[in-house]
Amino acid sequence: MTTGVEHTDVGAYALGLLEEEDKAAFETHLLHCGGCRAELSDLAGVASALDGLGPVRDLFPPGDDPEVGPAIDLVRRKRAADRRTRRGTFVIGMAAAVTLVAGGLTVGTQLAGGSTAQLARDHSGHASHMGPAEQFYADGRPIEGKGVDGVTGGLVVESKGWGTHAALRLAGVKGPLQCELVSVGRAGERRVMTGWAVPTAGYGVPGSPDPLYMHGGSATPLKEIDHFEVVTSTGKRLLTVRV
After folding, report:
1. 99 Cβ neighbours under 8 A, 6+ residues apart
2. CA–CA separation, 2 vs 226, rounded Å?
3. Which residues have C-beta within 8 Å of that of residue 81, sequence separation ≥ 6?
4. Which of the residues 57, 65, 152, 220 has the least number of beta carbons within 10 Å of its own beta carbon?
5. Using an 8 Å Cβ cutoff, are 136 and 215 in contact?
6. 93: buried, middle or exposed (CB in 10 Å: 19+, 13-18, 0-12)?
7. pLDDT, tens only, 88-147
8. 132, 46 in Cβ contact below 8 A?
9. Distance between alpha carbon 91 and the CA centroid of its chain, in Å?
10. Pair type for strands 163-171 and 212-218
11. Is the dihedral of CA 102, 106, 107, 108 positive or negative?
């Protein structure tokens, strides 16, 4: 990728497959590309899920070194092979095509217009779906926010080399609304981390009990952030989370 950054490299970055020089260039690109930040949020958790799977059969084409090995190693070898012909989009396509199944865990992805979903078995033996934002939130240490008009929610945050990653849980909100998650720096700098539309039925309310889970990214380092806000397109503040 030394000839330039491509938007399709978000998949390779999410799986930790970029070389150091390319990784640094793409992290710089992330600071100015909201689309790539949003796509990276959707892909969060894919690498850790692949890395956690046991050995699976390599699904390379026949005659192309069909071996057995950890899933993430297979993807890395596939990227090395594909680098000779094409680049970028195969990474998530590979994760989707493989549909890795091991230890009761299935990982599936969509390349465009979708989200990564994880299918697991709960203690009762029933299948349960948990997206990457919800999984990250469940595994982290939520910071509860202060909402208005019955709105509740919180954030799980982590410091990244490119800035700050956050997973939001939001409930008690009805639509139609357009909202944004915003980081507010100690010096007052505001950065939009992600945005979404709330349907009329809403989230975490009677008739629509499931809360909303969203990922977001800010170029502001976590240590320089004073708080986070969920605001509507009209400027109304629904939730404030202080760190």
Report:
1. 106, 107, 108
2. 36
3. 60, 64
4. 65
5. yes
6. middle
7. 444 444 444 444 333 333 333 333 333 333 444 444 444 456 788 999 999 999 999 999
8. yes
9. 15
10. antiparallel
11. positive
In whole angstroms, how far apart are CA 25 and each of 31, 158, 161, 184? 10, 21, 12, 25
Contact 179, 233 (CB under 8 A): yes
What the block records as the tokens of 225 is: 């952030």
Which class for 2: exposed (0-12), middle (13-18), buried (19 or more C-beta within 10 A)?
exposed
Tokens for 162, please give them: 């490119």
Whether 116 contacts 43, CB under 8 Å: yes
Residue type for 71, please? A
* Listed range (28-37, 74-83, 211-220) with the worst mean pLDDT: 74-83
Q: What is the pLDDT of residues 199-226, one digit of tens each?
A: 999 999 999 999 999 999 999 999 999 9
Q: In which element (H, E) is residue 12 found? A: helix 10-14
What rounded mean pLDDT belongs to the chain? 74
- Region 181-186 average pLDDT: 97
